[in-house]
Design goal:
This protein is of the alpha+beta class. The chain is built from twelve helices and 23 strands. The chain binds adenosine-5'-triphosphate. The site of adenosine-5'-triphosphate has 16 residues, from β10, β13, β16 and α8.
Length: 445
């Protein structure tokens, strides 16, 4: 059942605590755009870094690129986006609201005012703009609707400069733009979004094996960012619903509070893209196999497996999975049970009292020591210690460290020990500073 109350709480926490807020908010916002604030940007970077580790840097067959967002419009003509990247649009004859026709319970009736809906027409979702000091059609360029286009444009550069053997892949993180008819559900359906995409080039006969490998990797990544296996569901997309380039697609769906919806996609794009770009550009995009199997071809267009992950939808799924409310020490509290690897702040260091210079000095030393293992170590000496812990709980900080007089040696047997407090349970332990450093290092690795 949809839990819209949970959604409201997440949106409110995200805004209140500097994670995510509506874009250009003081002007009333701009539909389909959101900004990441100080904690949001750290969370986003961690989600992306983990993806880079698992999908690119931890492998020998992957290369990175960072392609331009603006591209020659022929890229999108050849890929089929100019003619086919559209959603069905209908308009209410009474209130004039524009709606996506394939998302309506009743295709005849406006869900807002009950008015009659007009004819359905296809609406192209690419944002158009003009390059240079002219606004005529010949200068039309598009903001890329997926990062994949930039990867296809770099396939030849990677082959020519790195000479990789098949199978190999190219990974890219970047912005994509879609003029969605109805942006909604916070950062779920945006007009400006961030994608993490891999195009993995294989011999045509190997596509099924690679498809399975990436499918497994996507599950591993889901678990690494803290999404419970039970909240992820694979949907085999039927041919009638697949994108024009795909022979097989699995949608990874997630149980969002507003229903089960697409989180990520895994597609077998065949040789559609490279063949289309070869034909349109006149430049050969064939791969030369130096060591072809007996009877096999030495020159051919590789086929492509594409795991495509939206950063924003991942972050929303992470927040939904991590949001908790419980009672601790007789008080209600809200906390984010984020995986330490992706938590924006790894630990908070605090002197028990802020007006005792010797405590502050020691606490600063401990903080500096921790910062050598990770830069995101917070400092808080405001208000009572319980309140400091609660503030960190709400942003998902897994550890809090308190320096007191025993740390300084008031009780000699406790000298150089600190209190380590755990976010999820509120449990506290007395450990040496080096034990704490080791614990945190291990948790965030
Ligand atoms: P939907 O069916 O929900 O419109 P899609 O099938 O068009 O999504 P893809 O083209 O497969 O999406 O894009 C790859 C990934 O990019 C998606 O799985 C999702 O994570 C992300 N994504 C796509 N559109 C949006 C959007 N408007 N806002 C946020 N993320 C998006």
């Amino acid at each position: 059942m949809a839990d819209l109350n949970l959604m409201e709480k997440i949106v409110s926490l995200a805004k209140r605590r500097g994670f995510i807020s509506p874009g250009s908010e003081i002007y009333g916002g701009l539909a389909g755009t959101f900004d990441y604030g100080p904690y949001g940007v750290l969370l986003k970077e961690n989600v992306e870094r983990l993806w880079l580790q698992m999908f690119r840097d931890g492998r020998d067959d992957m290369y990175g690129v960072d392609a331009a967002i603006l591209m020659n419009p022929k890229v999108w003509e050849a890929s089929g986006h100019v003619s086919g990247f559209s959603d069905p649009l209908t308009e209410c004859e009474k209130c004039k609201k524009r709606l996506r026709a394939d998302q309506l319970d009743d295709p005849e009736k406006c869900p807002e005012c009950g008015g009659k809906l007009g004819n359905v027409r296809q609406f192209n979702m690419m944002f158009k703009t003009h390059a240079g000091a002219t606004e005529d059609e010949s200068a039309t360029v598009y903001l890329r609707p997926e990062t994949a286009g930039g990867i296809f444009m770099n396939y030849k550069n990677v082959i020519d400069s790195i000479h990789p053997k098949l199978p190999f892949g190219i990974a890219q993180i970047g912005k994509a733009f879609r003029n969605e008819i109805a942006p909604r559900d916070f950062i779920f359906r945006l007009r400006e979004l961030q994608q993490m995409e891999v195009e993995y080039f294989v011999k045509p006969s190997d596509w099924e094996q690679s498809f399975e490998e990436w499918r497994k990797m996507m599950h591993l990544y889901a678990s690494a960012v803290g999404l419970p296996e039970t909240s992820i569901h694979e949907l085999e997309v039927p041919e009638s619903d697949r994108a024009h380039y795909s022979k097989r697609t699995i949608d990874f769906e997630f149980d969002y509070p507003f229903g089960r919806k697409e989180l990520w996609g895994l597609a077998y794009r065949t040789d559609f893209d490279l063949s289309a770009h070869e034909k349109s550009s006149g430049v050969s995009l064939a791969y030369q196999d130096e060591d072809p199997p007996a009877g096999g071809k030495s020159k051919f267009i590789p086929h492509i497996i594409e795991p495509s992950l939206g950063v924003d939808r991942t972050i929303l799924a992470v927040l939904v999975s991590a949001y908790r409310e419980d009672e601790l020490g007789g008080e209600m509290r809200t906390f984010l049970a984020l995986a330490p690897k992706i938590a924006p702040i790894k630990a908070m260091v605090s002197p028990l009292l802020k007006n005792k210079p010797e405590l502050v000095k020691k606490a600063r030393e401990v903080r500096e020591e921790l910062r050598r293992i990770h830069p995101s170590i917070a400092w808080d000496d405001n208000g009572n210690i319980g309140k400091r812990y609660r503030r960190q709980d709400e942003i998902g900080t897994p550890f809090c460290i308190t320096i007191d007089f025993d740390t300084l040696g008031e009780n000699p047997s406790l000298k150089d020990t600190v209190t380590l407090r755990h976010r999820d349970t509120g449990d506290q332990e007395r450990l040496t500073i080096s034990e704490v450093v080791a614990r945190i290092r291990e948790a965030i690795q």
